[in-house]
Amino acid sequence: IASFAVLNDEGILDGGRVYVETRAGVLPVDVENGTTAGTRVWLGMDDAKWTPSDISTLTIARVLGVPVGWIAQSLPLRVSKGDTLFVPLAARAELPRVDVVPARWAKVARTTGLKRICAFKLKDDHAARWECRFFAPGVGVLEDPVTGVAHGRIAQFLLAERRIGLGATCVGEQGGWLGRPGVVHIRVSDDRRRTRVFITDMIRRIRVQW
């Protein structure tokens, strides 16, 4: 996202849709100029490739060091691309108290192949706002303060569960309890032939003098 903002600022791009080749495939990028927030860059997400999780809610609660009642009962546990577990939390859950217990996580990771875990909590009844925490001990990251892709996946999760629909716009929050708050904006396309989730966030521009 930041790379395309720079390309646009330097005049190499002039808004519109372009494409970027990534390890996840060729993804669309929409560059919007003249918005009230300035230039906004939207990155299209690849498919989440969801699979159900066979891990019990009790085990996940123990891994996160929280009461089992904090795991939502109205939404399932799901795994994205075989290695990232998404855990919906109940309304009464307190995100600052969520954390990964290393020994318990290591045991689950050995038996499942999981590398990352994202716990999220809806902030309204319309599933348009949420908060999350994203832990990736399997790739050497204890906790990421703001994870754009994770918020896109949450939107895909909610879309699969019919909690949001085509054309939805959402806002995800993360990192406040780490002193590094961030906000990610998400929109769902309304193309029924190829529904895609797009993410964007605020880019802080700094000038570097060489």
Question: Can you describe this structure in just a few lines?
Answer:
By secondary structure, the chain is of the alpha+beta class. 19% of the residues lie in helices and 35% in strands. The chain is globular.
Stretches where pLDDT falls below 50 for ≥5 residues? none
Provide the structure class.
alpha+beta
* Biggest sheet statistics: 12 strands, mixed
Percent strand equals 25-35%
Could you explain the architecture of this structure?
The protein has 210 residues and is α+β, with helices and mostly antiparallel strands. 19% of the residues lie in helices and 35% in strands. It has helices spanning 2-9, 57-64, 102-112, 148-160, and strands spanning 16-22, 25-35, 38-44, 50-52, 78-80, 84-88, 116-122, 129-136, 141-144, 169-174, 182-188, 197-201. Strands 1, 2, 3, 4, 5, 6, 7, 8, 9, 10, 11 and 12 form a twelve-stranded mixed β-sheet that branches. The radius of gyration is 18 Å and the shape is globular. The mean pLDDT is 92.
Provide keyphrases for this structure.
210 residues, alpha+beta, 12 strands, 19% helix, 35% strand
Topology:
Elements: H1 2-9, E1 16-22, E2 25-35, E3 38-44, E4 50-52, H2 57-64, E5 78-80, E6 84-88, H3 102-112, E7 116-122, E8 129-136, E9 141-144, H4 148-160, E10 169-174, E11 182-188, E12 197-201
Parallel strand pairs: 6-7, 8-10
Antiparallel strand pairs: 1-2, 2-3, 3-12, 4-5, 5-6, 7-8, 8-9, 10-11, 11-12
